[in-house]
Amino acid sequence: MAMSTDTQKLKQHLWEKIEKGPFLMVGLADGKSHSEPLTAQLDKDQVDTIWFFIGKDNRLAGGGAAMAQFVSKGQDFFACLSGRVELDTNPAMVDKLWSNAVEAWFPGGKTDPNLALLRFDIDEAELWESDVSLTGKLKMLFGGKIRGDEAGSHAVVANTKI
After folding, report:
1. Percent of the chain residues topping a pLDDT of 90
2. What is the DSSP letter of 31?
3. How far apart are CA 107 and CA 131, in angstroms?
4. How far is residue 25's CA from residue 40's CA, in Å, rounded to a whole number?
5. Is 152 helix (H, G, I), strand (E, B) or coil?
6. pLDDT tens digits, 8-25
7. Which of 14, 31, 50, 57 is the most exposed place for a label (fewest CB within 10 A)?
8. Which DSSP state fits 135?
9. What pLDDT is recorded for position 140?
């Protein structure tokens, strides 16, 4: 089933917010692991996936069910993402996502022995927007009723694939 244009716009809105402030708190959904801040690496060709460069000794390197939380730079957009994390050993993805900022953390470059690329495949996302001017738009995308006293909105996206 094709995704509606409105849902696609909502996902693009999420990506735009992450591009402006790319930090997410990411943790395993095992009920005991703490989340940690990581810098998102975005690939427009794979909008259902967020990438992170981590050390091979990072607590997320073992993979598994995971959750990520995002608060936009202006603190007007919030997201909670669930899915799975796993290491990706594809050198082409490392090349595609590599930047000077990443190299600052991994001085050995792309062949740094501690370098790992973590792939976060999103299964579900819950999004909140606190900008009143966008409230109606987000509510309408998901068939919600809009009340005059609402100061924000909340949307659940069951599938992140465009």
Report:
1. 52
2. S
3. 41
4. 10
5. coil
6. 777 788 888 999 999 999
7. 31
8. H
9. 40
pLDDT tens figures, 110-162: 999 999 999 999 988 888 877 555 554 454 444 444 344 444 455 555 555 54
Tokens representing 16?
A: 């735009």
What was the pLDDT predicted at 148? 45
Paired with 53 in beta bridges are 117
Q: pLDDT digit string (tens) for 139-151?
A: 444 444 434 444 4
**Using CA atoms, how far apart are residues 52 and 116, in angstroms rounded to an integer?**
8
Could you identify the residue written with the tokens 């427009």? 44
Quote the Cα angle for 158-161-162, to 5°.
115
Residue 49: half-sphere exposure toward Cβ, Cα within 13 Å: 16
pLDDT higher than 50, residue 66: yes
- Number of Cβ within a 10 Å radius of residue 2: 7
* Residue 86: half-sphere exposure toward Cβ, Cα within 13 Å: 8
- Please report, as a single letter, which amino acid is at residue 40: A
Residue 68 has a pLDDT of 97
